Amino acid sequence: MNKPVRKAVFPVGGLGTRFLPATKAMPKEMLPVVDKPLIQYAVEEAIEAGIEQFIFVTGRGKTALEDHFDHSHELEETLLHKGKTETHRTVLDILPKPGSVFYTRQMRPLGLGHAVWCAKELIGNEPFAVLLADDLVLANQGNCCLKQMIDVYNQNGGNVVAIEEVPREETYKYGVLNVTHDDGRIAQADGLVEKPKPEDAPSNLSIIGRYILDPEVFTELDKQESGAGGEVQLTDAMAKTMDRVEFRGLRFEGHRYDCGSKLGFIEANLAFALARDDLRDGVTDIIKRLSV
Ligand code: G1P
User: Fold this and answer.
1) CA 243, CA 130: separation in Å to the nearest integer?
2) What secondary structure letter does DSSP report for 183?
3) Fold of 7-260
4) Alpha-carbon distance 196 to 190, whole Å?
5) Is 146:210 a contact under the CB 8 Å cutoff?
6) Could you give the count of Cα atoms lying within 13 Å of 77 in the half-sphere of its Cβ?
7) CB neighbours of residue 110 within 10 Å
8) Taking CB atoms and a 6 Å cutoff, what residues make up the pocket around ligand 1?
């Protein structure tokens, strides 16, 4: 039996420079898609997938994230006092169980691999998930991206990442697989390259921000070797454990929105609004009006 995946890491230390000035005094993970911040979608996905412990790797200026997942007594009392019971419930619903959330600080922006390494002591010797809140996945109810990955992990163990095909000219934004076997759903690989130029990319199958990792990855992250962009890359550490940890890329069911880019973020807002009964008609009207 493979050890269960109980813990998830949320690297949220990034500066969010692509969304300045919006992110000057606010963490980029708090940007809302419709009416929920990005980080809440990621946490809800983890909860749906059965995760029990939530580890945030934060940095300076990120206290709004901690406040978001805590009681706001004044707000709660005011809502109750005004009889807004449904809104009151909405505010309470987002609270994880006391004692299930952990925070550690990255302290220096040395890359995604370094952020994950900062959670090493909180993870210990067990498999864990990593979710990048920038990558927002719209999937069918009850079948979120991480749950699909955990199903694959429970059968096979090893490392599992979510993958999708990207236009070749965009490989420079992603970790890319050197595929050895591909059954159309699960791709196996014997190498990974972080952010290759299109002409150097071994394929156009790219990792999106969902990982299930064997703790063996820490053996490589411990070395703190820098790769693409001078940063400690998670992709490189995974690649270096491929000789001893099986690796699978899952083409998940669902649609991923790159909320780290402006267009992706706008598209996500439209798509998530169109998926909601209370907003669909109104948003459809707006789109029609704006596109004439
Ligand atoms: C990170 C990873 C990259 C992955 C991507 C998914 O890059 O380093 O391998 O493909 O997330 O969004 P970033 O977007 O942080 O530059």
Assistant:
1) 21
2) -
3) Spore Coat Polysaccharide Biosynthesis Protein SpsA; Chain A (3.90.550)
4) 16
5) yes
6) 3
7) 17
8) 112, 132, 135, 174-175, 194, 206-209, 233-235, 260
Strands 247-251 and 255-258: unpaired
* Domain-wise residue ranges, the chain: 7-260, 262-292
Residue 107 has phi, psi (to 5 degrees) of: 70, -40
Alpha-carbon dihedral sign for residues 11, 17, 23, 25: positive
pLDDT of residue 105: 95
pTM: 0.95
Query: What are residue 165's DSSP bridge partners?
Result: 205
The span from the first CA to the last CA of the chain, in angstroms, equals: 58
Which class for 17: exposed (0-12), middle (13-18), buried (19 or more C-beta within 10 A)? exposed
User: Which residue in 264, 221, 275 sits closest to 110, CA to CA?
Assistant: 221
Q: How far is the CA of 246 from the centre of ligand 1 (A)?
A: 21
Question: Low-confidence residues of the chain, pLDDT below 50?
Answer: none
For 213, phi then psi, to 5°, come to -125, 140
Instruction: Work out the burial of residue 121: count CB atoms within 10 Å of its CB; fewer than 13 is exposed, 13-18 middle, 19 or more buried.
Output: exposed
DSSP run (H or E) holding 173: none
**229, 195 Cβ separation under 8 angstroms:** yes
Joined tokens for residue 150: 């955990």
Report the nearest-CA residue for atom 15 of ligand 1.
Answer: 112
Q: Residue 269 C-alpha to ligand 1 middle, in angstroms?
A: 21
- DSSP-derived letter for residue 157 is -
pLDDT digits (tens, 9 = 90+) for 211-228: 999 999 999 999 999 999
Give the residue from 113, 248, 255, 256 showing the smallest Cα distance to 177: 248
| CA nearest ligand 1 atom 11, residue | 209
